[in-house]
Specification:
The structure is a single chain. It contains twelve helices and 21 strands. The strands form four sheets. The protein has a ten-stranded antiparallel β-sheet, with no helix packed on it. A six-stranded antiparallel β-sheet has the order 2-1-11-10-9-8, sandwiched between helices. The protein has a three-stranded antiparallel β-sheet with strand order 3-5-4. It is an alpha+beta fold and 506 residues long. It is globular, with a radius of gyration of 24 Å. The protein has two domains: 324 residues, Beta-lactamase (3-Layer(aba) Sandwich), CATH 3.40.710.10; 147 residues, Beta Barrel (Lipocalin).
Length: 506
């Protein structure tokens, strides 16, 4: 195991930015349509600004969502450089055995799809095949309506096929393959990178990456330098130049300008000329500006439909648009103010509890219908929890009994060998749940309050992402309990995935 080497640091002025401008950028990032989790920026290989909104912190891995597509595409580029594949390889040739085993007869257009088409999301499909069940079979059996290479359609299942290609051609999963070839070379400690796999398939999932914000910055730095790191060409320049280009026009989220600029290899062109981005849902960003040797990484929880674009606009207006070609004179007082702001940013506290927890509500309750599920969810409007397909089966144990108790500092929910703790004072205190069905992703902070004499609201922030779960316990005064679980979607028109259960005191 190689020791993780920190990136060098410098002042904003050395990097060609005013500390005042960077301070204004951080403050503007806290706009009403997001909860910022982290921000880091580097130029010429040196970090000049960074902050984590407490209780988030640098060592925590954070969900990437579709930012993971860029790690997956990087694996394809490295595998091509090593001779495992070519971008011109046809999907039906790679999965010839699977097609035969599934009894699929590929259509003429399916036979034309290449890795290049998958990289550029020009698969030719009119809708994305389902990722649930056997996504490889779903993709290979999908109708190909258009000529491959001619039309863009956002297709995460296609991106997952790239991971299946890596496993098929190399015999290794994405994380295993990238550990010696990418992670250890650019300074990402593999134990600090989580890559969830599809349940029952054992294939690393493109949407299932969790990385430290600084490690996402490292990937952006690799692309910004043309695939070279410390003098070693890790990723072929030809692959990087194709990735950082417009391979296909896009008409995606047309109400936002950054969905209309074009697409490369599993990444987007930005509306600011010369800038490209790794892009994950709800605003997980890696901005790359090769001409200026500038990279930025952000983890956040931005509300659809407008939050992600608002964050990009802040970065363009307050940071990228302020860049100078040469270092600026040092400004110690302004730098001191910036570093103070970086240290002090935090998630706003909740209102403290003002109603005593009735002692008669404490006790053990048996769930009567369904089971108690406090874990985080990723759930776009109109669908259920997409992340359930990544749960570890041996850890996904139904919770049928819960025990509630409370002290002067806050309430607790016990189940099995685990306990969730919250504070009454409204402050987010870091804890860790040990039985989370997503391994090593149980970091959380929670606040609680009585909304009336018979209702407990228990608000959990899952800190390996923007996720929140709100548990509402409504007591009927006769030993019965109604339990409402609200899981944040981050969508203004349909903001929560809601489950309801009843329970009886035993």
């Amino acid at each position: 195991m190689k020791k993780e080497v920190p990136l060098p640091r410098c002042t904003p002025e050395e990097a060609g930015f005013s500390s005042l401008d960077v301070t204004a950028c951080i403050q503007a990032l806290q706009h009403p349509e997001t909860d910022m989790n982290s921000f880091i920026a580097a130029r010429h290989g040196k970090v000049f600004a960074e902050c984590w909104w407490t209780p988030y912190s640098p060592e925590l891995v954070h969900v990437n969502h579709s930012f993971g597509k860029s790690y997956t595409a990087t694996a394809i580029g490295i595998a091509e450089h090593e001779g495992y594949l070519k971008r011109s390889d046809k999907i039906v040739d790679i999965f010839e055995d699977e097609i035969r085993g599934y009894g699929i007869t590929p259509s003429p257009r399916m036979k034309k799809i290449t890795i290049e088409h998958v990289l550029t999301m020009t698969n030719g499909m009119a809708k994305m095949p389902s990722m649930e069940g056997n996504f490889v079979k779903n993709y290979l059996a999908a109708e190909v309506v258009y000529e491959p290479g001619t039309r863009f359609l956002y297709n995460s299942t296609g991106s997952c096929m790239l991971g299946a290609i890596i496993k098929k051609r190399t015999g290794m999963n994405l994380k295993e393959y990238l550990t010696p070839r990418l992670f250890e070379k650019i300074g990402i400690a593999p134990e600090n990178f989580t890559w969830l796999s599809f349940r029952g398939m054992g294939i690393n999932a493109e949407p299932g990456t969790f990385a430290k914000t600084e490690d996402n910055l490292r990937l952006a730095m690799l692309y910004c330098s043309g695939g070279c790191w410390n003098g070693e060409q890790i990723l072929a320049q030809d692959f990087v130049s194709n990735a950082l280009s417009v391979k296909v026009d896009t008409f995606f989220a047309p109400e936002h300008k950054d969905g209309l600029q074009g697409y490369g290899y599993q990444l987007w062109k930005c509306s600011l000329p010369g800038v490209y981005r790794f892009d994950g849902g709800q605003g997980q960003y890696g901005l790359i500006w090769p001409e200026k040797d500038l990279v930025v990484a952000v983890h956040e929880g931005a509300y659809s439909p407008d939050g992600p674009q608002m964050t990009l606009d802040v970065l363009y207006d307050y940071l990228l648009g302020k860049i100078a070609d040469e270092p600026l004179p040092e400004a110690p007082e302004n730098l001191l103010k910036l570093r103070e702001v970086e240290r002090e940013v935090h998630v706003p506290a909740e209102a403290p509890n003002s109603i005593p927890f009735p002692v008669e509500l404490a006790g053990t309750y048996a769930i009567q219908d369904g089971h108690f599920d406090p874990w985080f969810a990723a759930s776009p409007p109109g669908v259920g929890d997409l992340f359930r397909i990544f749960r570890e089966p041996e850890l996904d144990i139904p919770i049928s009994f819960i025990t509630l108790s409370a002290s002067e500092t806050g309430p607790e929910i016990r189940f099995g060998d685990d306990v969730l703790k919250a504070s009454w004072d409204g402050n987010w205190k870091r804890e860790k749940a040990n039985s989370c069905p997503y391994p090593n992703l149980g970091n959380y902070a929670a606040c609680a309050r009585m909304t009336d004499a018979a209702t407990l609201e228990f608000n959990i922030r899952w800190l390996n992402g923007w996720f929140q779960t709100v548990l509402i316990f409504s007591f009927d005064g006769q030993g019965g309990l109604k339990l409402t679980t609200k899981k944040l979607r981050l969508n203004r028109s349909d903001n929560f995935l809601i489950y309801e259960n009843t329970a009886t005191k035993i």
